[in-house]
Design brief:
The protein is mostly helical and 309 residues long. It is built from nine helices and six strands.
Length: 309
């Protein structure tokens, strides 16, 4: 049964339910997806430009046939990212869409590793952003799922390479024939350990950040309710009350004060107190200096003035 708020399903309120009782507002998850898609696009552009610069310094034609798979991969990555960003407004199940983007990132990194030599590739660290994205988008469970998908994809790719069932390309770097089982095992073991460690750390940090944000929102709500209560209490008092800031401007006036002064609220609030009580011009507020105020500090603790309506 779907969770409800005030008798209505969470989905109808624009909230995506999560495990552990948390709920992500629809708009917030949409903004996170937009940020992840933008980050993917920028990261893809950065590594494409970096690869082109490295190849150009090797006196190699950047339009050579050996680099074409990388260009095809980049074009497909950019197109799918743009299509995902454009279709984001029409997506109804944002949680499912978020998992789809995580799996796409894992698949894209795996294919890039295949293009760059498999076990010899330097791009295995790109699994880390995909794992962190799971924690940022959804929760710790999503980061663990992304880490598991990364471990499975990377381990399967290296196993197929080790047994000679596939031959990864060498779009970037120089081809070599590495068949040392120790190198394969060490690479798989260390990377998988790094995947799950990243999932644990990013999930924990994201969870703490969400709890802190929730506490801040609750505190703001409590302060707002306290302010409303405070204003209601002051409004219900029959005596006239003005709340004055340290610089001498009226912050608040209750109904009784407005009746006594025969002024509207906009004629009192945010006005200098001297404009309402000219006889109080000898008062000095913090930051100013006045010999009279200093001499009569004891007398001014309580004072009466005549006010003409």
């Amino acid at each position: 049964m779907a969770q409800k708020i005030n008798g209505k399903p969470l989905e109808s309120e624009g909230i995506v339910p999560e495990k552990g009782g948390e709920a992500i507002p629809d708009a917030a998850l949409r903004r996170r997806l937009q940020g992840v898609l933008l980050f993917r696009l920028l990261l893809g552009v950065f590594f494409l430009v970096l690869t082109i610069l490295v190849q150009s310094h090797r006196a190699e034609d950047i339009l050579s046939a050996r680099l074409r798979p990388l260009y095809y991969f980049s074009v497909i990555l950019f197109l799918l990212t743009i299509v995902s960003a454009l279709s984001l407004k029409r997506v109804r199940s944002l949680r499912r869409f978020a998992y789809l983007q995580l799996f796409f990132d894992v698949a894209a990194v795996t294919f890039l590793i295949y293009l760059s030599g498999g076990v010899e590739s330097l791009f295995s660290f790109l699994y880390m952003p995909a794992i962190i994205s799971g924690a940022v988008l959804l929760n710790r469970g999503a980061s663990v799922v992304s880490a598991s998908a990364s471990a499975l994809s990377y381990g399967l790719l290296l196993d197929l390479q080790y047994f000679g069932w596939i031959a990864p390309l060498q779009v970037v770097g120089v081809a070599s024939q590495v068949r040392d089982s120790g190198a394969f095992f060490h690479s798989i073991l260390m990377n998988i350990a790094g995947f799950y460690l990243t999932a644990y750390l990013s999930g924990s940090l994201a969870e703490k950040l969400r709890k802190s944000s929730q506490q801040v929102r609750e505190q703001k709500r409590d302060f707002h309710q306290l302010e409303i209560l405070h204003r209601n209490i002051i409004q219900s008092i029959s005596s006239g009350i003005l709340i004055v800031s340290p610089n001498g401007r009226v912050l608040f006036s209750n109904s009784a004060a407005q009746q006594i002064l025969a002024l509207r609220q906009d004629q009192i609030d945010d006005q200098p107190i001297e404009s309402i009580f000219p006889t109080l011009d000898i008062l000095t507020w913090p930051g100013e200096s006045s010999t009279i105020a200093q001499q009569e500090s004891q007398i001014l603790a309580r004072r009466e003035v005549i006010y003409k309506r």
